Amino acid sequence: MMSILVTGGAGYIGSHVVRALGLAGMDCVVIDDLSSGHAEFVPDEVPLVQASLLDAAAITRAMTDHSVEAVIHLAGFKYAGVSVDRPLHTYQQNVQGTVLLLEAMEANGVDALVFSSSAAVFGTPDVELVTEDTPTRPESPYGESKLIGEWLIADVGRSSGLRHTSLRYFNVVGSAVPELYDTSPHNLFPLVIKALREGRTPRINGTDYPTPDGTCVRDYIHVADLAEAHVVAARRLVEGETLEAVYNLGSGSGVSVREIMDAAAAATGIDFEPEIGPARPGDPARIVATGEQAARDLGWENRHTVHQMFASAWNAG
């Protein structure tokens, strides 16, 4: 029986993709070095290969042992801020790892790939609504490495006929089930939840931005909706269809930091007034993308409200 290789499938997003594949009746195998993933996030019935993408032999064994016909590539070093201090590590994990994966795919006749890219490829866009045609100007080694990944994949597609697509997204939040949750030390939702559980008051950085309530507006999407888009893309590629090279998985509207704090209070029953800190240098007032192209081709839809997003995150873990 053929299966899909999910790189980084023991991580927060990857484990939700694995779950969505199972719900769709599609077999998969996970490869993850568990540097930020968790073995317990992978269902018992799903094979887990504990290895780095820098281990070319391990990638090949996973492909041959499990009759892999397509890849959903989520593995990578994902911390944009940290990447500034660790550029070589970031490029090694995200660029060299992708090169070795593509080589293994080519050698083993695996010709379909869904790449987990990032809205970090845009940097700080100067448009009200980001589209797939918005110029890419990454501002961190992480964003650069993701854009290089897109280029590599597109080049291989032109040379070998690889069917592929790259999915770009901003802030992924929430949980589909309580046992799968975000453990990142850098993301807003886990930081707010940690503060509230420890009896501390969450903080807003800056309240004088040119937005409706003065706080930054970002594109927050629920991880279950995101996972479903990966599965739809993989299925269409496996069936021999051609997709666009890139899709933005955006909400089209965005959510402010103040709205998230209000949702946190409502979901937890903790009545708090967030602390106000100074705006952080370089934080743009608004970054929101349209998901119209993905809606057309992948059935993409942001199906959860901010209240549902925060409540699912609070009830997980």
Question: What does this protein look like?
Answer:
It catalyses: UDP-alpha-D-glucose = UDP-alpha-D-galactose. GO terms for molecular function: UDP-glucose 4-epimerase activity. The chain is an alpha/beta fold. The protein has two domains: 3-172 and 220-248, Rossmann fold, CATH 3.40.50; 174-219 and 251-314, UDP-galactose 4-epimerase, domain 1 (Alpha-Beta Complex), CATH 3.90.25.10. 39% of the residues lie in helices and 16% in strands. It has helices at 12-23, 56-65, 80-85, 87-107, 141-160, 188-197, 223-238, 257-268, 292-298, 306-314; strands at residues 3-7, 28-32, 48-50, 68-73, 112-116, 163-168, 171-173, 203-205, 217-218, 220-222, 246-248, 255-256, 275-277, 286-287. The strands form four sheets. Strands 3-2-1-4-5-6-11 form a seven-stranded parallel beta sheet, with helices on both faces. α1 (12-23) links the parallel β1 and β2 (28-32). α1 packs across α7, α4 runs parallel beside α5 and α8 packs across α10 (306-314). The radius of gyration is 19 Å and the shape is globular.
What layout of secondary structure does this protein have?
Elements: E1 3-7, H1 12-23, E2 28-32, E3 48-50, H2 56-65, E4 68-73, H3 80-85, H4 87-107, E5 112-116, H5 141-160, E6 163-168, E7 171-173, H6 188-197, E8 203-205, E9 217-218, E10 220-222, H7 223-238, E11 246-248, E12 255-256, H8 257-268, E13 275-277, E14 286-287, H9 292-298, H10 306-314
Parallel strand pairs: 1-2, 1-4, 2-3, 4-5, 5-6, 6-11, 7-10, 8-13, 9-14
Antiparallel strand pairs: 9-12
Family: Belongs to the NAD(P)-dependent epimerase/dehydratase family.
Catalytic activity: UDP-alpha-D-glucose = UDP-alpha-D-galactose
InterPro entries: Epimerase_deHydtase, NAD(P)-bd_dom_sf, UDP_G4E
